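Need residues for this backbone.
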């Protein structure tokens, strides 16, 4: 699969798992900000700098989703393999 397809599938998987994914422009904040996960009103949210490379966006999202139970949720084989790789780290 192409990286953009993997990222799109990760976003769909996150949605099915109840995790919100947001991309924001961190350059306008004026302070150093990192992409990452947090809890907003009791729900998990992954906030990603929209200026990150696609490979870094994939890594951020996949490493977060790998921490959640994902065996019961359908994922295409390429994404499932990626999640399994990050869950082992």
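Answer:
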């Amino acid at each position: 699969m192409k990286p953009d397809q993997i990222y799109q599938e990760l976003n769909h998987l996150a949605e099915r798992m109840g995790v919100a994914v947001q991309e924001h422009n961190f350059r306008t904040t004026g302070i150093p900000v990192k992409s990452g996960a947090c809890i907003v009103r009791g729900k998990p949210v992954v906030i990603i700098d929209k200026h990150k490379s696609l490979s870094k966006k994939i890594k951020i999202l996949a490493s977060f989703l790998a921490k959640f139970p994902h065996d019961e949720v359908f994922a295409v084989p390429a994404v499932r393999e990626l999640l399994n790789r990050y869950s082992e780290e």
